[in-house]
Amino acid sequence: MALRPILVAPDPRLKAASAPVATVDDAIRALIDDLFETMYDAPGVGLAAPQVGVCKRVLVMDIAEKDEESKPFVMINPEILDRSDSEAVYEEGCLSVPGHYADVARPDRVRVRYLDREGEEREIAAEGFLATCLQHEMDHLDGVLFIDHISALKRNMILRKLVKARKQAAE
Ligand code: GNR
Ligand code: NI
Predict the structure, then answer these.
(1) pLDDT tens across 131-140, in order?
(2) Ligand 1 pocket check for 140: Cβ under 6 Å
(3) Which residue's alpha carbon is nearest to atom 6 within ligand 1?
């Protein structure tokens, strides 16, 4: 198990579409372990493989509150089967967009098919914050960040600040 560095926008690797996993093997399970370790350390409620520079369709999530039992989720090659017409708005953040938050509207309910850690096909119906997180993580697999869902003005302001912060950190 290892912590992996999390990429920060703007980084071309966060804009790329990730490739489906052909076989769920021990190498994929090792990646999953690293994603969980990195997500809990950050801490965050989700993490997608491209955020650590691995362009594979793998994500992990755990939206349990601190005082709740942890509810780890792994999804490999997730696909949205259905989305509701009704939307919900949540304030989103992203470990790859540190320090910035914005309201994003997304379908309130989604049904998703995916492979679990054993490579077994599963389906989940998610609503509320879980549905938002799931869509946020799945977006990463297509090179999409939450700031791509807000106005270009706000997005460019955030990206400029991230570039400036990176330059200052390098000094
Ligand atoms: O930790 C995270 N919090 C969060 C809050 C609202 C909506 C989505 C998220 S996901 C984010 C971790 C992350 O960047 N996952 O890709
Ligand atoms: Ni994110």
Answers:
(1) 999 999 999 9
(2) yes
(3) 92
